Amino acid sequence: MDDFDMGLLDDTEYMKTVLRQKMLGIAPVFLYRVPKEKAPGVEYLADEWNLKKPLQQCSLRIERRGDVLLIVFTFRKEDMKGSALFALCKIDLVNTTLPIVHWVQPVGDSSRYFAVRVEDEKGGREAVIGLGFREREEAEDFCQCLANYSNAIARERLEHAMEMVEDVDEDV
């Protein structure tokens, strides 16, 4: 799959020092216009998204780059070879106190649809788009991928804390 300009995450020095791990790829997925962003604690409903008319049909790729999880949505343009970046969701559970549902929230009326917060890293704008999968199994794989990332970050934090405790014990 093609690589895309992802702003700071494609910095040459960063690319040399950070492990890139591709975790999931699914095609096609469907992206929907979400009428308006919901207040915290209010669930999204896929029935409000005009499911018969997706905004875009895309490929989804999830990869981890260092501490950051990227959900990359790409699409094929008829007039160009390869794929073009449609949207990007960048999740960083290390450098924030926000929970993962800030970026990816299941909807209240289906197990195959999610509200995803995407951002324009260069412009600093954010938007919420709807994400839909054809098959329930694909949605489950997506959820498992997010859970694996969350668990890995929690494990790494615990290991780091244990190392700090051992260092303090050695100094005493």
Automatic annotation (TrEMBL):
<feature type="domain" description="NECAP PHear">
    <location>
        <begin position="24"/>
        <end position="162"/>
    </location>
</feature>
<dbReference type="GO" id="GO:0006897">
    <property type="term" value="P:endocytosis"/>
</dbReference>
<dbReference type="InterPro" id="IPR012466">
    <property type="entry name" value="NECAP_PHear"/>
</dbReference>
<dbReference type="GO" id="GO:0030125">
    <property type="term" value="C:clathrin vesicle coat"/>
</dbReference>
<dbReference type="Pfam" id="PF07933">
    <property type="entry name" value="DUF1681"/>
</dbReference>
<dbReference type="InterPro" id="IPR011993">
    <property type="entry name" value="PH-like_dom_sf"/>
</dbReference>
<protein>
    <recommendedName>
        <fullName>NECAP PHear domain-containing protein</fullName>
    </recommendedName>
</protein>
